[in-house]
Amino acid sequence: MTMKTGTKISLGVGALALAALLVWAFAPRPVDVEVAQARVGAFEQTITEDGKTRLHDRYVVSAPLAGRLSRITLTEGDRVEADAVVATLTPVLPPMLDERSRREQTSHMEASEANVQRTSARIARTRVALEQARNDLQRTEQLARQGFVAPIRLDTDRLAVQAAQREVDTAVQEHHVAQHELEQSRAALQASRAAPGTAGAFALRSPIAGQVLRVVQTSEATVAIGTPLIELGDLGRLEIVVELLTTDALNAPPGSRVRIERWGGPVPLEGRVRLVEPAAFTKVSALGVEEQRVRVLVDITSPPSQWQALGDAFRVEVHIVTLAMDQALMVPVSAVFPLPGDSRDGAVNGNGHGKPQFAVFVVDGGRARLRPIEIGARNGGDAWVRGGLEAGDTVIIYPSSAVTDAAKVRPRAP
Prior knowledge:
Layout (H helix, E strand, L loop, with lengths): L4 H22 L4 E7 L1 E17 L2 E5 L4 E3 L9 E2 L4 E7 L6 H48 L5 H43 L8 E4 L4 E6 L5 E3 L4 E6 L4 E8 H4 L7 E5 L7 E8 L4 E4 L5 E11 L14 E18 L4 E2 L19 E7 L2 E12 L3 E6 L6 E4 L11 E3 L3
Parallel strand pairs: 1-22
Antiparallel strand pairs: 1-21, 2-11, 2-16, 3-10, 4-6, 4-9, 5-8, 6-7, 8-10, 11-15, 12-13, 12-16, 13-15, 14-15, 16-20, 17-18, 18-19, 19-20
């Protein structure tokens, strides 16, 4: 018995439909991916670390002689001018201690005189260094106009002049404080030589114009010679102390630009690395790992009006810029991965640089294409691409294991 022709045709069509359905069911689907564009913009590589503000200089006013201290009326935060009276002492020298106290005060006066001479010599030394820095800058500017030196050398010499000027200002301030201490020592010695009961009140004066940081002795009392009474400082001369790993500190030489964030203000502040201390120290991290760290001192270069709310020992977040480019080709760092088949950390790439090779997936015609690239540097969000991509190329970010070379992909809607 033969099958009718119509039935055969129906079965054939059904078989073809079933085969087409199976092909469609088992055909690979495009992988949904997130994409981003390679773009040209400003790129920065930074070292990020928490820092702490501190006063460039702080001064403790101590009792230059034994006596009866009158109650100090100043409180923390009060503003004082240079040479303003901050405390008053009435000499009270027991007869048995008169000669010893006078010898101590004589020694202190001699030490103050030596300190004045030392600070005078430092002023002369820093002024010579400033003149030398200015001469170097003048020669560099002449060579720069002729095109013989790089712009970075010109910036370095300008920063050297600024640093030398700061050293001169600091030396002058130290000399003023040393002279003030010498005057106080002479006055104290004169008061101690007065006949018992004839010495009047002795005024202790501020060596600087600044603010009261702490009143050590608040109540009226009899104090011994050398007793700390009040602590003063100029909050307009703050610096930031950052403890960096020694390997990071090598990439943050003096003059490096610094961006200061999370300090409490509305805008980031600018700063410069002034000094990397020559000696490191061991610090145990929160995970119990011993680390070698070194202190890096940062000067705040933003106008003081922007950070007048900052005080001593405030926490800040410091970003030390180690690399800055105005026009760099960048892709999100989440799009970059080591080139498959090259697991060596120091593999040499095609242009001879001893750097690891990396790759990205580029979307081309609805398919993912593996593209080797050369990375110049990376930061927390972007990677600087030195070669292998062009601006406007679409790259896949966070590629999953389903994304392979030539695989069909479908960008997700934003």
